[in-house]
Amino acid sequence: MKNILIIDDDLHVGNMLEEVLTREGYHVSRAYSGTEALFVLSGARPDLVLLDLMLPGLNGEDILPKIKGIPVIIVSAKVDIDNKVDLLLGGAVDYVTKPFNTKELLARITVQLRNTANAPDAAILTFDDITLHTDSHVAVIDAAEIKLTRTEYAILKLLMQNPAQVITKSLLLDRISEDTPDCTESSLKMHISNLRKKLREANGKDYIEAVWGIGFKLRDSE
Do 166 and 62 sit in the same domain of this protein? Predict the structure, then answer.
């Protein structure tokens, strides 16, 4: 199930969008200000963001540059063409003007999610001393190859794709299901424990940390 974050302080618009998106099979999360949006994004990584510009506190223009690696569709009442151009050049993938047709917005969301799904993964991911070859599913630490199960590889790949973010347990399970079907909520802790042990045995470092009550993230280098 794809996750969409709605960042909009207009309760009527937000509720309508949530109802429409939920009916279409999306999982929806909400933020009502720029500051709250950054807090939500620090603990989860949605597949797409719908971003209003006129927000209390930090506005949409302020937080757009802070949203990395996630397609952002601007949904705003602002119609100035120069503003649209600046935002599209500044990282937004699309711009929809309020009031909007829900069928058109859904089509634009579908297009962006399809583009993201079809985008090739980076062949090599790196974090600290870890190198992960996504074409061969091989992890290397200090020139030593680490043998990973399919589930361990999927977990490590997701964490390395989002090195600065805490990945919630539910999002982790949802995302890695694309690469491996054998990880469940009850077995996730065991898979991560085994992965941490294998990485630690390579050079003594503990690369993965648990964020109590939320999920997991890569540990910052000391």
Answer: no
